[in-house]
Amino acid sequence: MLEIDGVTMAYGDASADPVLEDVNLSVGSGERCMLLGPSGCGKSTLLRAVGGFHAPARGEIRVGGDVVSRPGPDRAFVFQEFDQLFPWKRVLANVAYPLVVNGGKKPQAREKALVHLEMMGLRDAVDKYPHQLSGGMKQRVAIARAMALEPRVLLMDEPFGALDAQTRDRLQEQFRTVTTELGTTVIFVTHSIHEAALIGDSVVVLGGGRPGRVVGRISREHTPAGDRSAVEARLKSMLASAHTAKEDDR
Ligand code: ADP
Ligand code: MG
Question: Residue 91 is inside which H or E element, if any?
């Protein structure tokens, strides 16, 4: 569903040091792929490239076989910030609006919005305004809005990073359940080992100084089923090397 093929990302002119170099990644349909790495290693930069907001200096990104060259509703984003909703629209309209903008009919858009809000446990909040919601509820609305678009890839940038621990635990579980049910393909940025092991079908560790590279990867098929602590231990040692080593040096 998603292929990142020899991608180098840089800011500024051609002489600028790249942030990320030669990243290769393949994500299958229905797979939740976590991008894990230390702060500043280029996780958001890579995600924005998949979103079509920032073109690679080298390499190519394909979603469903199509080369990414601009943003589109086939790649929906959820960010960390609580202010990503339209403050002047009620919850239902927040979710339905992008569907209408992308050519949906209003009654069908509201119907679909309702289905996704219900999935996220927000049945009772559909008539509220964002300022009446807790941070956790706002993030659930943002997830429902992104899922309602039925994107080919759902792009998540530390969506639970600003939540309190209890709410975060609950949303991580809920997100896992809903994406499993719908078979959503997900790229999920995190700097939490625990979150990566909990949600990911696969985890790609980025880092290794500047430019950053892929320093390690784990796939669910290659780890004992349900053995999350083993996954966490392996991720921990990969992340330690992410602060220094490059994949080639290992
Ligand atoms: P992460 O999401 O892993 O914390 P980012 O992708 O946000 O990292 O940033 C990676 C690097 O790129 C950092 O060194 C950051 O300072 C730099 N960077 C991010 N955005 C810009 C920008 N708009 N212009 C120049 N440099 C940037
Ligand atoms: Mg980031």
Answer: helix 91-101
Q: What is the C-alpha to C-alpha distance for residues 242 and 247, in angstroms, rounded to an integer?
A: 9
Mean pLDDT score of the chain, rounded to an integer?
Answer: 92
Which residues on neighbouring strands pair with residue 78, listed in sequence order?
A: 156
Give ion ligand 2 contacts, CB < 5 A: 44
Give yes or no for residue 152 having a pLDDT over 90: yes
- Ligand 1 atom 5 nearest Cα: 42
Amino acid at 178: V
Residue 123 Cα to ligand 1 midpoint, Å, equals 37
Substitution site in 9, 15, 45 for ligand 1 pocket (most atoms within 8 Å of beta carbon) = 45
Measured from the Cβ of residue 109, the count of other Cβ atoms closer than 10 Å reads 22
Counting ligands in written order, which one lies closest to the CA of residue 36?
A: 1
Residue ranges of the chain assigned to CATH 3.40.50.300: 2-74+151-248
Is the pLDDT confidence value at 248 over 60? no
End-to-end CA distance of the chain: 29
Residues with CB under 6 A from ligand 1: 11, 19, 37, 39-45
Q: What is the pLDDT of residue 228?
A: 83
Q: Which residue has 């339905």 as its token pair?
A: 96
Q: Looking at the domain that runs over 2-74+151-248, which CATH code has it been given?
A: 3.40.50.300
Helix (H) or strand (E) holding 128: none
Q: How many CB atoms lie within 10 A of CB 107?
A: 9
pLDDT of residue 227: 79
Nearest CA to ligand 1 atom 26: 11
pLDDT at 19 over 80: yes
Closest ligand (CA of 156): 2
